[in-house]
Amino acid sequence: MSAPTISAAPARSKMDTKTITCLAMLTGVSVIIAWMSKLMPPVMFLDFDFKHVAVCIGGFTFGPFAAAIISVLSSFIEMITFSHTGPWGFLMNALGTCSFCCTASWFYQKKRTKQGAVIGLGMGLAVMVAVMLLWNYLITPLYMTGASGELISRPTVAAMLPTLFLPFNLAKGGMNMAATLLLYKPVVTALRASGLVPPSRNSVEGKTFSLGFLLFSLALLATFVTFALVLAGVI
After folding, report:
1. Cα separation of 150 and 6, whole Å?
2. Contact yes or no for 75/97 (Cβ under 8 A)
3. Cα–Cα distance between 43 and 62 in angstroms, integer?
4. CA atoms in the 13 A half-sphere facing the CB of 30
């Protein structure tokens, strides 16, 4: 009589549960960060949002599909809680977050190094800026109102693309890029210590965080924070 086959299903189920728990936690953190981001001075009617950091951490760890899940869920929770832009705002929020975080996560999965993280986030920034310029032109006139209470016309929105939407999205994306480079390693190290994330495999969080990389990330963050403060009229 042959020996009975031992099923590996329980272990796989346990890992799936851990992944779902981690994604749910990162979704909650994303919403909290989005809410706290409201404290930063806006640029006209545009608010800075740093939740891309938490979404990218999830995407770098579990892949671009995970980043998409966190993006959509966190944007939906924002819509039904503290956001005042309704379904159109939810659509723009989800598109902006997905375009940045999914692109960065997709590239990082192919090149899991510090260089891959920088290039992936840079690609995410470029894709997000392009996507948001297109969708701001298409969608903003459908729901955004001016001081008179009337919808902003499409020619008015088109005039704001290079002078408002472009620099705003560059500043927001740049700050999220730099903050992700700074926070990914310590956050994922903590998640690994808690057992929610599997062991490292030749990635940024598994290597020494060099002083040069740290200084580069801090300089990048300082540059885009200053740029954002200038746009907001603070300095």
Report:
1. 67
2. yes
3. 33
4. 34
CA distance 142 to 138: 8
pLDDT in tens, 53-74: 999 999 999 999 999 999 999 9
The token pair at 66 is 């995970």
Instruction: Convert 63-90 to b/e letters by CB count within 10 Å (16 or more is b).
Output: ebebbbbbbbbbbbbbbeeebebeeebb
Answer for the pair 128, 96: CB distance below 8 angstroms, yes or no.
yes
Q: What is the chain's Cα-based Rg?
A: 20
Stated length of the chain = 235
Rounded to two decimals, the pTM is: 0.87
CB-based contacts of 183, cutoff 8 Å, min separation 6: 53, 57
Fill in the DSSP letter of residue 155.
Answer: H
Q: Which stretches of the chain drop beneath a pLDDT of 50? A: 1-14, 206
Mind listing the domains of the chain with CATH numbers?
15-231 (1.10.1760.20)
CA-nearest of 66, 71, 64 to 110 is: 64
Work out the angle between the directed axes of helices 9-37 and 64-80 (0-180°, nearest 10): 50
